[in-house]
Amino acid sequence: MKKLGITALVLLVLFSGMGFADDAVGATRQTQGITTVTHVVVYGTFTDSAEAVWVSSNQDLRNNPPLNAYSDNVTADGTLDPNTQIWTPEAQYTMSYSEQTLADNGYIEWDKTVSLDTGDKVANQDNFKATTQFDFVSFEDAFGRATFSESLMLDGASMGSDAGNRMLCPFGTGDSGYIPAYCNIVEMGSSFTGSRVSMITQASERHVAASADVPVGMSYSIGLSGIGSAAAWINAHIMEGRTGGVFGTYAAPDGKTYKPGFWNYDMGSGSPDNGFMQGVDMVYKEKTTASGVIESFSKSMTYQSGVRRI
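^ that's the sequence the OP posted. Answer follows.
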């Protein structure tokens, strides 16, 4: 088929500043990999759907919420001491991907590659990646239509972590030696409906790594031309903490001792409550739409969060 050209009009969203500090969770001992490659050329009707939800934690996710912050101290003889609480902060990530496509009464070319790997990744690798190329032309004597939608979401929350135990870089000491608590969620995606389209999308994310030197990352891009309606968007809510007071041993009003203890100077609260101070609360939304004879529609979005970003 004759494909519609994509010119150089580009809308770029680079969402990776302001000191965001996600700390990726580490891989389990056993790791898994899933890869699919699909190629279809057909006159008539075509459908495709893909759904993925992946939850990861550095502890046991079966009893969440709430995330764990402290655990009973284990004495030298192996007994539990509930009056002494040791900081054992938990983090949890949820990745979700969804794609739905229906094309009817037309000529269709479809190529899609999906890869998912639960192992530790470095800064130039991804845990999940999906690339889709889709071409559709409606039959002239029929009311042909193509509908496409795709979305990628990453949701991470943590009670904090000890930067000295999580960083390889000797200069990445975090905030007073700690990576503060955070709760961040980002969603990106696109959609199209119309009688003619030539498009390509790429979606990727990374949230599993052996150390906090590797930032959490996510990206999405779309490029298309055609006849119909197109949209692309990003939605984000960022809540980041700061470290206030830190005490090697903190005797709390509940009669227990916390090691270490954290104190929020502003709120007058501390361990066992979250003693980190919330330093950022940011909501970002952006959506681009176009309808009619679309000569070019291109949008690229990137999110990166970590103590050390690239």
